[in-house]
Structure formats: structure tokens, C-alpha cells
Design brief:
With 341 residues, the protein is α+β, with helices and mostly antiparallel strands. It is built from 9 helices and 11 strands. It has 3 domains: 85 residues; 141 residues, 2-Layer Sandwich (Alpha-Beta Plaits); 71 residues, Double Stranded RNA Binding Domain, CATH 3.30.160.20. α2 packs antiparallel against α3 and α6 packs antiparallel against α7. It is globular and about 70 Å long.
Length: 341
């Protein structure tokens, strides 16, 4: 398999060598956060390199077998599988940051507009669930608040799988829907907004220092579906990190202890993302501006009437099959942003 372009092991080796030099610096751990970032980035690049080298080795083997027996069924099937793996490998080189390999928490919040916006949140929640299923990712609802008459006020998913955060990180922002309202008897066109936030599901190898004195922990009764235990005990947990005013909640687990453990995990992940955003602000003011979520500055428009069109305002990527997009066909939008870097 030719090197270069997406498949450039030599470039990866060079980047790994540069990071290796940094790890050999005796002063590296003077800044623990930076040191961990270097090690994580090096580990991610090494994983990508190993996958590409394995792909090249399999390509060479199949090429030799094909020259000997081009009609062999196993060889033909092997080539077809290799093509699919090569297609996937083209994308793994786009996941460059340490957290890109993580799972993710995804939070969807209704904007102004009552039932209309809450119904839009439910549509988006289904869209991302279907997207996860298409990729073979597992997901669970951590927190959900139903709408007053229909839809969902807000919902938090935990999505697990390889490079989930890398895929989802550019979904952060405001999503705008234009359609004929199913809740308006006059059949008027309605515009609805919802915001999406994403942060990495960091594992225990990433150290985030949290002082218990900085936390306010509240308990309350769960409000969503979940079994007979819901609404009978104060099992749901809300944790506020006072210095950053970061709030996380969890009501999905059966016990208050389990909900607290999950909420603490979410808090660690959110604080990690805040630290990454802080560094981005210091390094690139433009990137920092892109991270802000403000109503009226939508990242994607979903138009269902008077025509069918989903358009990402950042890249210009369009899809006239809005039904497919709302059924989870999001990769073209995500890849365009990843390739833009």
C-alpha cells in the first residue's frame, strides 16, 4: 500500500520521535499537565502507526496471494475487507488530540420556544442515538428531563466506543430547525433551536485534581423514566464545582451512591474539557471563539419546509435528504470538519 497522503507512516514516526525526545527531558515533569498531554499524544500516534503498519503488511500479503491465485474466494474476500479497513484508516489519521480516542458525554438542551424546542431536542437525541448505532457504539441515558407536554427539555448521553469524542467534538454549538409546526393548528412555519455540548469521557489515567471543599452536592428525586424506584427517593445527584460554576447531574443509576460516582466522573471529564479549552484560548483566540455557544450563532441548519436541506454553516456541506440525516447519517458533516483541522 503506497505511503503518503493519509497513509504516511514516516511522518508519524517523525512525530513520535519528536515526542520521545520530550519524554526523555528530565524537566518534563516540572509541568505534570503538559507531561501527561505529551505521553497521551505519543500513545495515540503510536496506536495509529501500528494500525497503518498492520494495514500495509496485510496489503503486501494479499497482493502476493492475488498474483498467485486471483480467483481464490478467500483472497477476493480478503481484498474486499482490506478495502473497508483502508477506508476507515483514512479517517483515523484525523484524530490528532489525546482525548479524541475517548468516549464522550453528549448534552442536548432546548432553546427558547417551549414545546417546539423540546420536540427538537427529542429529534436530535434520536439522531445521535441512531448515529451511535450505525458505528456500533454503545450509549446510555445519564440524565433526562421530559418536556412539559411533549419532547425533552434536556438529555445527557454517555456514548462509549473507539474515538467517539473525536467524532463528536465538532457538534458543539447551536442546531436550528425550520419546519411546519405539528403543534400549531394553523400549520405555520416554525424555527426552533437547541444547543449541543460534548466533553470527553476521560479515564482514570487522566488526573484531575478536585478539592471536596469546592463542591456543593445536592440530592433530589429523579424525574424521568427508569422503573419503580423513580420519584420515591432522593437518589438523583447534582454536583456544582463552585470555582468554575460547572454543574453535572445524574439520575440514571438506582442508588444515590451510584449516581454520585457517575456525576463525579462527568465532573472530572468536564473539568478536563474546560482545561483543554483554556489552553486553546491561550494558543489560538480564533479557536476559542469557535468553542463558544451562543444563541443565534448556529452551526447547522435543518430545513424541512419549504424544501429539504441540512447545511453546515462552517463548511458549506449540504445534504438534501434531511430524513437520512435525522436518522443518523452525520459522517459527511463530521469528516468535513475533521479534514479542515
Amino acid at each position: 500500500m503506497p505511503s503518503g497522503g493519509f497513509f504516511d507512516p514516516e511522518k508519524l514516526k517523525s512525530q513520535i520521535a519528536e515526542l520521545e525526545e520530550q519524554t526523555n527531558n528530565p524537566n518534563l515533569w516540572d509541568n505534570p499537565d503538559n507531561a501527561r498531554g505529551v505521553l497521551q499524544k505519543k500513545s495515540g500516534l503510536e496506536k495509529t502507526l501500528n494500525e497503518l503498519l498492520e494495514l500495509e503488511s496485510d496489503f503486501s500479503t494479499l497482493k502476493e496471494l492475488y498474483e498467485i491465485a486471483p480467483d481464490d474466494k478467500d483472497v477476493v474476500e480478503g481484498i474486499e475487507k482490506l478495502q473497508e479497513r483502508a477506508h476507515q484508516a483514512k479517517f483515523i489519521t484525523l484524530f490528532r488530540e489525546p482525548a479524541d480516542n475517548s468516549g464522550a458525554f453528549l448534552f442536548i438542551q432546548a432553546g427558547a420556544g417551549g414545546t417546539e424546542a423540546q420536540d427538537w431536542v427529542q429529534m436530535l437525541s434520536r439522531m445521535y442515538a441512531r448515529w451511535a448505532e450505525r458505528h456500533g457504539f454503545s450509549y446510555e441515558v445519564i440524565e433526562e428531563h421530559p418536556g412539559d407536554t411533549a419532547g425533552i427539555k434536556n438529555i445527557t448521553y454517555r456514548i462509549s466506543g473507539e474515538r467517539v469524542y473525536g467524532w463528536l467534538k465538532n457538534e458543539i454549538g447551536v442546531h436550528r430547525l425550520v419546519r411546519i409546526s405539528p403543534f400549531n393548528a394553523n400549520g405555520k412555519r416554525q424555527t426552533s433551536f437547541a444547543s449541543v455540548d460534548v466533553w470527553p469521557d476521560v479515564d482514570d489515567t487522566i488526573e484531575i485534581e478536585i478539592n471536596e471543599k469546592d463542591l456543593r452536592i445536592d440530592t433530589y428525586r429523579s424525574s424521568g423514566a427508569g422503573g419503580q424506584h423513580v420519584n420515591k427517593t432522593d437518589s438523583a445527584v447534582r454536583i456544582t464545582h463552585i470555582p468554575t460554576n460547572t454543574v453535572v447531574t445524574c439520575q440514571n443509576e438506582r442508588s444515590q451512591i451510584q449516581n454520585r460516582e457517575m456525576a463525579m466522573k462527568m465532573l472530572r471529564s468536564k473539568l478536563y474539557e474546560l482545561e483543554m479549552q483554556k489552553r486553546a484560548e491561550e494558543e489560538n483566540a480564533v479557536l476559542a471563539q469557535q468553542k463558544k455557544i451562543e444563541w443565534g450563532s448556529q452551526i447547522r441548519n435543518y430545513v424541512l419546509y419549504p424544501y429539504q436541506l441540512v447545511k453546515d454553516v462552517r463548511t458549506g456541506v449540504e445534504n438534501t435528504d434531511s430524513g437520512a440525516v435525522l436518522d443518523g447519517d452525520l459522517d459527511e458533516f463530521m469528516l468535513a470538519l475533521l479534514q479542515r483541522g
